[in-house]
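Journal club prep, notes for RB
We'll compare a predicted complex against what the paper describes. Inputs for the IPE case:
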Amino acid sequence: MDSKNKDLRHLAIIMDGNGRWAQQRGLPRFEGHLAGARRVVELIPFMEKYGIEYITLYAFSTENWKRSAEEVQYLMNLLADFLDDNLENMCKNRIRLRVTGRLADLPDFCVQRLNSVMEKTSCYQERTLILALNYGGRTELTDAVRKIAASVQDGSLRPEDIEEKTISEHLYLPDVPDPDLMIRTSGELRISNFLLWQLSYAEFYFTDTFWPDFDEAELTKALDAFRKRNRRFGGRP
Ligand code: IPE
Ligand code: IPE
Ligand code: MG
């Protein structure tokens, strides 16, 4: 397989199945999250190896606050540990960290670490790892509509001048290209409020494999499947 895949600039992943992975082994759910975080660490060098410019990882949705306080607390601590432990790894692999979601509602100790790692990796231009945290596609669109409505209200934008581009420009990361491929692990066939606007023309790849088992062989299987797809974007084949 060639290491540069020009057609796949942006890979988006719904990392699902941590809980079931743990359950299958008679372990508590948090063990699944810990094993899932290790898979994220493994992905870091794969960005260069497989020529992927952007990876967006769905790490915590706006709906995940519905989980037990213990699980939410565990996930936030795991995020902080991941950031503390991987700054060097990100720098070594020349990867920039960015986030998408309503960050202000995350605990302060997470926001501080996120800001620090984002700042320290902001010099890297070739590859970007995006963590979707407290992210919901509907929330993102709601926030975009609020900003657009404010511009209409202050007279700087006329309703008839609102185009698709206007909406794209008011999303959280307007400069990031839309995902080319969206992978969801664990056998669930839904998008669970992930990147609703941006996934319009993404190819979807679903696997029964739980996220903590999603290794390099699984990734290359997904990339191979993507390469065989015929993307038409509504045009002729
Ligand atoms: C994905 O695994 C991780 C998060 C949503 C944070 P789950 O925790 O959803 O695992 P399952 O779906 O219960 O197996
Ligand atoms: C989607 O997984 C969110 C993340 C992976 C962060 P969920 O496990 O929360 O989604 P549902 O509840 O199965 O739709
Ligand atoms: Mg799940």
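Talking point for the session: Residues 95 and 127 are 5 Å apart (CA to CA).
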